[in-house]
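Encode chain A's predicted structure.
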Amino acid sequence: MEKPIEKIEETILGFNYHQIQQWVFKVGIDLLLSVLILVVGFWLSNLISKTIKNVLKKSNTDESLISFLASLTSTSLKLLVIVTSITQFGIQMTSFVALLGAAGLAVGMAFSGTLSNFAGGIMILVFKPFKVGDVILTLTAQGTVKEIQIFNTHLYTADNKVIILPNGPIANGNITNFTKAENRRIDFVFHITYGDSYEQAKSILEDFIKQEDRILDDPKPFIGLGAMTTSSIEIHARVWTKTEDYNAVFYILNEQVYNAFSKAGLEFHHEK
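Encoded structure for chain A:
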């Protein structure tokens, strides 16, 4: 005599149809809740991060600290959401922590660079070699600092390219900050040919320097005769301006000198 289908179901791997159905239903609910926790949790993390950013901006907090704290808050909350989502499957936190501990060495080795970047971000915020808005040169990249995040610093170049640099190498490398100081010196070198009047060239430069309001009187401007090469005479001019006026003064003075020297019959010489 054949066994009824219900009896056969009871003998399959020790589970019957109802047990399998209940298990699938439970796993489905846990999976749905886990995904829901991830979606809602990530959305809340971004919302909280943006809220903190807006509140700090209104309190006139340093821009560098704002971007760092917002990034740190977002990353920390998302990690917490991921852990909460995993525990929804019934994985106990003690087991999860034990698993992380067992893999700690490997993870530490794999993410040593990431940890170094995090430490670099802290060093940048504490020692302040630059801040958001400064123009810097570091790791062969030059641009305006737009964001200092927990792992990376974002630079915008003059042609609006975004350069993302790791904080670790920045903190341990050379940094040239073009805007940290209030004043900057502009150095000019003009070449005129032998036979042209140095005194006339110097007088033209002095007139332009006096007329340019953005050039500072202290430190005092300097004009002097530099090297005398086999084919030309070098005239050195050094003036000081506010840092924000550096480019404007550099280009306008070059333009004025070129036009004035040409009208005065002073011949420019290009050194090769």
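The domain at 183-263 is CATH 3.30.70.100 (Alpha-Beta Plaits).
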